[in-house]
Write a structure and sequence with these properties.
Helices cover 35% and strands 11% of the residues. By secondary structure, the protein is an alpha/beta fold. The mean pLDDT is 93.
Length: 136
Amino acid sequence: SLKTSKTLNELRLANNQLGDKAGKTLAELLKSNQTLVYLFLSQNNFEDETGKALADGLKTNKKLVYLQLDDNQLGDNTGMALAEALKTNTTLQKLNLSYNKLGDAAGKAFREALKTNKALQDLDLGQNQLGDEAGK
């Protein structure tokens, strides 16, 4: 099982249209898996239900370095939850959220999170609707 795997360090599930039920299961994986470093979940039709669950998993995960969530249906609720997780997560270095539905609230939340997060090196928020407030 993915939850108990001692060797899997990369999981690529992009472009599978998994949906939120599978997304929440994968989010649970983040809470217990101690080997996964790269997780690719682009183009899976995930919405905020999955996004918030993944953020919850990131709060306790101590291994994941790269999370790719581009081209889903993730909105401000996900953005705010992920930004909150970044305040305590010390391992994630790259987060791709391009081509989602993030708006002003998510942009402001990430701006605040980046003031304290020391691990994140690459945050891709391209092709969203962040607005003027996010850049201030």
